[in-house]
Amino acid sequence: MNFLAHLLLSGSEPAHQIGGLLGDFVKGPLPGSLPADLALGVALHRQIDVQTDAHPLFGQSCARISAQRRRVAGIMVDLFYDHYLVRHWSRFCGQSLDHYLDCFYAALARRHGQLPARLQGIWPRMRDQAWLQSYGEIDSVGWALDSLARRHPRLEERLLGSGEELMWHYTALEQDFLALFPQLQAFSCAWLGARQGTGGGKPVPVP
Question: What is the pTM of this model?
Fold first, then answer.
């Protein structure tokens, strides 16, 4: 899963949402200095990745990617799923996307000093340039994949231009996403609830 999906799957607590984003910036053992509420969000991020990578629907999406790009299919599908999440946001969240992200970025600002230096530098640009909202546009997904390719030369040959595959398999990938995402929401809610002993892991309800 990519940034936006991890945020929504992290439940309604801002600390867990921040931890959901931190999961892409903290690798290996968790730093002892990381507050427990953020660490719980990182742990959930990792469990979501395990569940997603092993899920037949995610594997089905990856199998739709052309053979020459199959080794980077997981990266591509993660971003493609964020595209569908933006497009179908109201199915999964009772708040508008802009309001949801405004609240999230406000929470990030309050805990800026507890974030890794790399994330401290990135998140204001994410907010000001509306990165996550932009994933709803196909061209923006392609740009994001091309940008990633240029930052990682070993991936460039396979990843550059890979955004076009979103159009090639658009409806099939969309169906995979719409079937998978509610299952991941249920998993995340149950995982958080089991660790908190409450229903606090529930996603933002849809009216």
Answer: 0.91
